[in-house]
Amino acid sequence: MSRLQLHDLQLARGGQTVLEHLDGRFQDGAITALIGANGAGKSTLIAAIMGMLAPVAGSVECRVPRERCAWLPQQLALDLTFPMSVEELIMTGTWPSHGGLKGYCAAHYRRGREIMARLGISHLAHRPLGELSGGQRQRALLGRTLMQEAELLLLDEPFANVDIETVDVLMEVLRDMARQGATIIVVIHDMEQLARLADDVLLLAGGHGRWVSPDALLDHHSGLVPRVPRLPLTFPDASHAGTA
Ligand SMILES: Nc1ncnc2c1ncn2[C@@H]1O[C@H](COP(=O)(O)OP(=O)(O)OP(=O)(O)O)[C@@H](O)[C@H]1O
C-alpha cells in the first residue's frame, strides 16, 4: 500500500534540473531514509512532496489529506524567537484540522499533556521556545506533529544537534507512529541512525534516485570502511547502488 508515489518526477531549482526520472512508492507504515550528499536534492524533493515546489515534469501523487501532512524542517531553518511556550506550540498541531481561531477543548488539552509526558517535556510546558535546548525543541516540534495526528511526516535531519537520549525518544515515537500506519520520510546522514530506524532507503545522487534496502546499503558501506558507530555516510553512485 502506498499513499505517496512519485511518477517520473523532474524537479528544478533556479532554472537548473536537480532531480529527474524519479519514480517509486513510499510504503505506508514504514520509515524511509532519504539520503544523499549535500546538494543532492533532498530538501528539494521534500518541498515537492509538501506541495511547495511544482514539478517541471511528472508528478507527486499524495493521497494523505493536507491537514494530516507534517514537515519538520532543519533546526537552523526555524525562527523560534516567536513568543510561544512549549504547550502553546504543541496545541497548534490542532490548527490544520480545527482552525486556529476556535480555541481548544478539554480533550485537546488532555491530549497535549499526554503528548508532553510521552516526550518527557511536561516540566517544560510553560517554557518559551527560545529558551529550549536543541533536543528539547525537537521533542516539542515532534509533539506538535503528534497533536496533528500526522499521517505523512517528513523530517529534515531531526537528530542533528540533539542529545543521545533525545535521539532515543524521537526514534521510539517515530517507530510508534509508523506502527500506527504513518508514512515517514527522514533525511539522515548518520549510518548508525539509519541502521536503527530505516525500513527503506531512497538514495539521491547525480540527479537520480534509487531505492535501496537498508541492508544492501549497510553492506556496501561496511565494505568501504569498518563498521563503527556514528560514522558519516559515504554515498555510492545512485545508478550502481545496491538492489532496488
Ligand atoms: N532556492 C534555490 N535557488 C537556486 N538553487 C537552489 C535553491 N535551493 C537549492 N538550490 C540548489 O538545488 C540543489 C539541491 O539542493 P537541496 O537543498 O535540495 O539539497 P540537499 O540534498 O537538501 O542538501 P543538504 O544536505 O546540504 O541540505 C543544490 O545544487 C542547491 O544549490
TrEMBL record:
Organism domain of life: Bacteria
Domain ABC transporter: 4-231
Classification via InterPro entries: AAA+_ATPase, ABC_transporter-like_ATP-bd, ABC_transporter-like_CS, Metal_Ion_Import_ABC, P-loop_NTPase
Keywords: ATP-binding, Nucleotide-binding, Transport
SMART domains per record: AAA
Transmembrane feature ranges: none
Example of a GO MF term: ATP binding
Annotated family: Belongs to the ABC transporter superfamily.
Protein's name according to its UniProt entry: ATP-binding cassette domain-containing protein
Taxonomic lineage of the native organism: Bacteria, Pseudomonadati, Pseudomonadota, Gammaproteobacteria, Oceanospirillales
